[in-house]
Amino acid sequence: MTGPGRGEADCLFCRIVARQAPADIEYEDTEILAFRDIYPKAPVHLLIVPKRHVESVMALAPGDTELVGRLVLAARRIGEQKGFGERGYRLAINCGPEGGQHVYHLHVHFLAGRLQERRVERR
Ligand code: 5GP
Ligand code: ZN
Question: pLDDT tens digit string along 84-106?
């Protein structure tokens, strides 16, 4: 798995963006791609990524404000397209080793569908 500081040369999500690795793509615009997580943790689990390689939240620069906004707005659009515009969904970003990040290409987890029931089940 791609670790911190290894750059985009061997980045899994860069390869997906370049269509060099397979993925079930659900949304695309000029700067953003969203595809299904291979190990879904919810009935709908997508990963929303910038096409440009950015390692993590910790690697964001002040000039990345617009990119971060685009990621969240893409999530909103996906939520509406998939019928969760009113029902709601969860967005999560794991940041760095202690934040549980495993793939070092910035990504927003989009989780939707029966999240509350699943939470109750775990209690
Ligand atoms: P992280 O743990 O870095 O926040 O999230 C990485 C996510 O990438 C995990 O939820 C994991 O299931 C997903 N993932 C890992 N390898 C692949 C892959 O090859 N394809 C896809 N679509 N998702 C992957
Ligand atoms: Zn990358």
Answer: 999 999 999 999 999 999 999 99
- Nearest ligand to the C-alpha of residue 17? 2
Token pair, residue 77, equals 């659009």
pTM beyond 0.90: yes
Task: Find out whether 94 and 4 touch, Cβ atoms under 8 Å.
Answer: no
Ligand 1 neighbours, Cβ below 6 Å, are: 12, 23, 35-39, 47, 94, 100-103
